[in-house]
Design a protein that fits this description.
Layout lengths: L1 H16 L4 H21 L9 H26 L3 H20 L12 H9 L3 H23 L6 H23 L4 H4 L3 H4 L1 H11 L3 H5 L3 H8 L1 H12 L20 H42 L18 H4 L7 H4 L12
Helix pairs in contact: 1-3, 1-6, 2-3, 2-14, 3-4, 3-6, 4-6, 7-10, 13-14
Length: about 350
């Protein structure tokens, strides 16, 4: 679902902002790649250990290219925004089919077999995310109709819930119960969207659920990239089967209380490092993009040398919303329902 979210969130951003600038591309590349590349270089580990990083990077640029094509078609052919998006999404799908369903995908083996496996396993995840982002506007209209008025349409609400449960159950009965990964993995790229769609239907099946928002999950969502890459170096050891023992007696033969305290201590250190790693990454991201803007466009109007300094590095409170999923850009407030759930 992470790659799906990259397609979904960035489609929402580009469709609303139409920001296809070099600054945007470099900014997002830095947000996704800066920290993992530093870890790979200084710890001398292969970058494919963090295989989700190139997946996210490719998904971002695929989404950017799709939305740029839609804007170009809308501008030159004078098509409507909807028709332009449909055309661009169809072209994107065709490119995916021509690459992944032919021997062209073997190009990925030039990098590594691991990349080939990971990319082909998530071959349509970004595209389904783009399609979901395009469909989200229509779904929000339905939510407004179903839950936004004084009278809640209970029939539609329970049909939606039944549909969500049905999709998840269908996936589990037909595919999810398969324990042999060699049997399930080839099927996964074509069926992963079924439980995702079911979850979205359940997650948005009432006004209360639409407006429900977890600050704890938001916090961890903001540092997901950092926790993913740091887990291999801080939170897990011995072929990622164990966690470090920092409290004596927390080994396999130790008491459950000591083991729990050891796990909590390791977890606190792990999350703290991830938080500050994200802060450093976003600070670098903001600094580089503002420097690029300064070099490309010059100082702001009305600025004269010696009178004031141009702020290149934004304080933490100003960069908290700069996320690789564009969380704050991609979720609109729909009145009277404030839709928080995706």
């Amino acid at each position: 679902a992470y790659v799906w979210m990259t397609g979904f969130g960035n489609f929402q951003y580009f469709d609303k902002k139409s920001d296809f600038s070099l600054e945007r591309a470099i900014s997002m590349w830095l947000r996704i790649n800066y920290f993992p590349i530093l870890l790979s270089l200084f710890l001398t580990v292969p970058l494919e250990l963090y295989y989700v990083v190139p997946l996210h990077t490719a998904a971002f640029f695929i989404t950017m290219a799709t939305c740029a094509l839609a804007q170009a078609v809308e501008s030159r052919k004078k098509w409507s925004r909807t028709h332009s998006n449909i055309f661009a999404i169809a072209v994107c799908f065709l490119v995916h089919v021509l690459f992944y369903e032919t021997k062209a995908s073997h190009f990925l083996k030039l990098f590594s077999d691991e990349y080939y496996f990971r990319f082909t396993s998530d071959r349509y995840s970004a595209w389904v995310g783009i399609l979901s982002g395009f469909s989200w506007g229509h779904f929000k209209s339905y939510i407004q109709w179903c839950y936004g008025g004084e009278q809640v349409r209970a029939g539609a609400m329970w049909m939606q819930r039944a549909g969500g449960v049905g999709l998840i159950a269908l996936w589990w009965i037909l595919f999810g119960h398969i324990q042999d990964k060699f049997t399930y993995n080839p099927i996964h790229p074509y069926v992963f969207w079924i439980p995702v769609a079911g979850w979205l239907m359940l997650r948005n099946s009432s006004r209360y659920l639409c407006e429900l928002h977890s600050e704890a999950l938001e916090f961890f969502g903001r540092i997901t990239l950092e926790t993913y890459v740091l887990q291999f170096h801080v939170f897990m050891c011995r072929n990622v089967q164990f966690i470090p023992i920092v409290i004596p007696g927390a080994g396999a033969d130790g008491s459950l209380v000591v083991q729990t305290l050891n796990m909590l201590l390791c977890g606190v250190v792990f999350v703290t490092l991830a938080y500050y790693a994200r802060h450093a990454t976003v600070l670098t991201q903001t600094t580089v993009t503002e420097l690029m803007d300064l070099v490309r466009h010059g100082p702001p109007a009305g600025h004269s040398d010696g009178e004031e300094d141009i702020e290149v590095m934004a304080p933490l409170k100003d960069i908290k919303n700069s996320e690789h999923t564009n969380r704050d850009d991609d979720t609109e407030n729909v009145e009277p329902i404030k839709i928080m759930a995706v």
